[in-house]
Amino acid sequence: MDTVCMRYLPILLLATLLSSTACVSSGDSADSVQSASEGNGSVSSATPSTSTDSTDTATTPTTDTGDIGSQSASWYKPPVAISWQWQLSGVVNIAHDVALYDIDLFDTPQQQIDELHLQGRHVICYFSAGSFEEWREDATQFLDSEKGNTLDGWPGERWLDIRSGNTRKIMRQRLELAKQKKCDGVEPDNVDGYVNNSGFDFSGEHQLEYNRFLATEAHNRGLSIGLKNDLDQVVALEPYYDFAVNEQCFQYDECDLLTSFIEQGKPVLGAEYKSKYVNDIEARDTMCSDARSRQFSTLILPINLNDAFRLSCAL
Questions:
Q1: Concatenated DSSP letters of 26-65
Q2: Cα Rg, the chain, nearest whole Å
Q3: Angle at 246 between CA 232 and CA 97, to 5 degrees
Q4: Per-residue pLDDT of the chain (315 residues; tens, 9 = 90+)
Q5: d(Cα 116, Cα 190) in Å, to the nearest integer?
Q6: pTM higher than 0.85, yes or no?
């Protein structure tokens, strides 16, 4: 028996080596197919589709570093100087000849979003990510402990504790709704509670982490996202966001803080409400000339954004 085993040992070793070589080749082929699939630039491969709500139980997400420039083809990215309309109250007037509409996520019926798409327009869907609004359909999901002080001038609206895991779960659900309604992107509002009298003791670092969380969750769903105001954190947050939405930077002489968006080829969608820009043609022309020189997409609108009038500093 020992002689027989020794006689066939070289053959067995050779067979083993051949089998190992075949396994390595097979594994390499599988890796090659996977790499080719990941690098084809398609939306479906670039955008994660299985990780949307898997972290609902986590109070604080891990650091979001994967969104900065690595998934460039997976969501809509509006260009600098794009034309736009912003209406958040009343029946949306879809007759404006613009490339982009910013409208309410909850109040706008699916039919209107579909009609805007048929007209060749992109749709950004607005929701508040930093405040509780008592009239929203998901308002009962917020805990009393997550509701802070009332927003000045906005009855029925209170600051939210952005550190809460439940708050983040609800925001994921809102992003899912935006995806289901086929919005091209989102405009989360009230993302600067740390500089307001929110009733909560959260810091600028908490706000930065929360705003990055929102950007990551939006991008994971193939949604573009705009940074609303929060001017003190623009430099830190610009790499995570696709455009800026700003109110009254000309009135308060804050427009220089938004330059980094334009420098990176991302639009600044601005709105001014001051009456002199409505009634004083010279004042409006001066402001609009400045807006055009900055390549800002600036509108003069009623503060309740109801389409009562619309004046544009179009380039």
A1: HHHHHHHHHHHHHTS--HHHHS-SS-SSTTTT-SSPPP--
A2: 26
A3: 160
A4: 443 333 333 333 333 333 333 333 333 333 333 333 333 332 333 333 333 333 333 344 434 434 454 444 599 999 999 999 999 999 999 999 999 999 999 999 999 999 999 999 999 999 999 999 999 999 999 999 999 999 999 999 999 999 999 999 999 999 999 999 999 999 999 999 999 999 999 999 999 999 999 999 999 999 999 999 999 999 999 999 999 999 999 999 999 999 999 999 999 999 999 999 999 999 999 999 999 999 999 999 999 999 999 999 987
A5: 26
A6: no
In angstroms, the CA 231 to CA 103 distance is 22
303 contact partners, CB below 8 Å, separation of at least 6: 273
Give the CA-trace dihedral at 190, 192, 194, 197, to 10 degrees: -50
* Contact assessment for residue 132 and residue 147, using Cβ atoms and an 8 Å cutoff: yes
Question: Token pair of 185, please?
Answer: 């992107």
CB 147 within 8 A of CB 186: no
Instruction: Give the helix/strand (H/E) hosting 84.
Output: strand 84-87
Residue type at 210? Y
SS3 232: helix
CB 52 within 8 A of CB 80: no
Q: Which amino acid is at 230?
A: D
